[in-house]
Automatic annotation (TrEMBL):
Catalytic activity: L-glutamyl-[protein] + S-adenosyl-L-methionine = [protein]-L-glutamate 5-O-methyl ester + S-adenosyl-L-homocysteine
Compositionally biased region (Pro residues): 290-307
Species the sequence originates in: Pseudomonas synxantha
Alphabetical keyword list: Methyltransferase, S-adenosyl-L-methionine, TPR repeat, Transferase
Signal peptide positions on this chain: none
Biased composition (Low complexity): 398-407
InterPro entries: Bact_Chemotaxis_MeTrfase (IPR050903), CheR_C (IPR022642), CheR_MeTrfase (IPR000780), CheR_N_sf (IPR036804), SAM-dependent_MTases_sf (IPR029063), TPR-like_helical_dom_sf (IPR011990), TPR_rpt (IPR019734)
Designated name of the protein: protein-glutamate O-methyltransferase
One Pfam family hit: CheR
Ranges where the CheR-type methyltransferase domain occurs: 6-241
Region entry Disordered, spans: 284-309, 398-419
TPR repeat ranges, renumbered to this chain: 347-380
Length: 419
């Protein structure tokens, strides 16, 4: 029952979910739960029931989607939004309200955080409106209730809770002045008619969603996001998704830990500095780091890559990605250290360490980890794009452009190598 591929195919068709991004175990567990709840006697019985029940289809989707969110997750994104919003209002001479989209909005923490950040920055209620959208009716209903438990409030700075919430028996209820700024609705990002009659948005938040799709679906979703975002607008994404946007003509605005991207107007690139590298092989494998430290002082050609055992190494890499994307930075870092203690060094592990340091605000440490990833795998796309964003934020525009050009060459080589 649990390994039946029809259920993965159903989720792929309905919400674009790539089974490899979450692991088969998540889908297997959800199917088992729904089989028990519906009292299906076999996989075939449940499959037949699923085909004829819209409610059950949604229930299976709900069982797979486990929202992991909290107020002001990645706080620099909201601080950056507040600054950009004030500048945008000045540009348009306050002739209309700013439009901000949050999707998926999950249980509402993100769109309400957007509204609180803008109100705290001094924007008047008539100057902006926030649209929240999610594929899950259950999540949208919880967002409309506006009552949150302690798990939605994380971090040391919780002063916003005193300003914008009222404590009650079931948790904390968000203030009406915040709720009134946010409109919530159910919607599927893969729906071609999504928001077709709505004006475009000045700012779009779509964080930690693209990582759950395969490449064709990522391209499809990105095209939708680009249509929804004003040509002068800004798209906020998750920490691990920067390289995906870089491939599609978007560029970091250069604010560390904001994960904010704008459209990039192509210019004639400078003369290449680096010798083009061959297209990377599909299996990312790691070359061992020399035992002596300072591997970057005098680079030497890497030795033939050593294959990482496919057993627990792959599972640990998947665990690192899951923990990092859920915001569990300490646990993700510990998993990286466990990996490096029991397996040959891997570029992807150093990339995750760089990303975790980047999110924590340790730019210098992050830069070192990204460079280690590129030492092991010179064309690692995510490391190239994130290091480019770091250099840009530090004023090294030339270095950033070189890395972006290098990533673009890698992308072209990757495309040309495919049949």
């Amino acid at each position: 029952m649990s390994s039946d591929p029809r259920f993965s195919a159903f989720l792929k068709e309905r919400i674009g979910l790539d089974v490899a991004s979450v692991g088969e175990a998540i889908i297997e567990r959800a199917v088992r739960q729904r089989c028990q709840s519906s009292q299906a006697q076999s996989a075939q019985d449940y499959w037949q029931y699923l085909q004829h029940s819209r409610d059950e289809q949604q229930a299976l989707i709900e069982a797979v989607i486990v929202p992991e969110t909290w107020f002001f997750r990645y706080p620099e994104s909201f601080a950056t939004l507040a600054r950009l919003a004030q500048a945008r209002l000045a540009e348009i001479k306050q002739m209309r309200a700013l439009r901000i989209l949050s999707l998926p909005c999950s249980t509402g923490e993100e769109p309400y955080s957007i509204a609180m950040a803008l109100l705290d920055a001094g924007l008047a209620p008539h100057q902006f409106k926030v649209q929240g959208m999610d594929v899950s009716p259950l999540s949208v209903e919880r967002a409309r209730r506006g009552v949150y438990g302690k798990n939605s409030f994380r971090g040391a700075d919780l002063e916003f809770r005193d300003r914008h919430f009222t404590e009650e028996a079931g948790g904390y209820r968000i203030a009406d002045r915040v709720r009134e700024q946010v409109r919530l609705q159910v919607g599927n990002l893969l729906d071609p008619a999504l928001l077709a009659n709505e004006p475009i948005y000045d700012f779009v938040f779509c964080r930690n969603l693209l990582i759950y799709f395969d490449q064709p679906t990522q391209k499809q979703v990105f095209d939708v996001l680009k249509e929804l975002t004003h040509v002068d607008g800004v798209l906020f994404i998750g920490p691990a998704e920067g390289s995906l946007l870089g491939r599609h003509g978007m560029r970091s605005i250069g604010v560390p830990q904001s994960f904010a991207f704008s459209r990039h107007v192509e210019q004639t690139p400078p003369a290449p500095v680096f010798v083009p590298m061959p297209a990377p092989t599909p299996q990312r494998s790691a070359a061992p780091i020399p035992l002596k430290p300072r591997p970057f002082s005098k680079p030497r050609p890497p030795e033939p890559p050593a294959k990482v055992p496919h057993t627990d190494a792959g599972e640990l890499l998947s665990q690192i990605a899951t923990l990092a994307n859920e915001g569990k930075s300490a646990e993700a870092r510990a998993a990286c250290e466990r990996y490096l203690g029991s397996h040959p060094p891997a570029a992807q592990v150093f990339y995750w360490l760089g990303l975790l340091s980047d999110v924590a605000g340790s730019a210098l440490e992050a830069q070192g980890y990204y460079r280690k990833a590129l030492y092991l795998e010179p064309q690692h796309p995510q490391a190239l794009m994130h290091l480019a964003a770091l250099l840009e934020s530090q004023g090294d525009s030339a270095g950033a452009r070189r890395l972006q050009a290098r990533a673009a060459r890698s992308e072209r080589a990757d495309s040309e190598s495919k049949p």
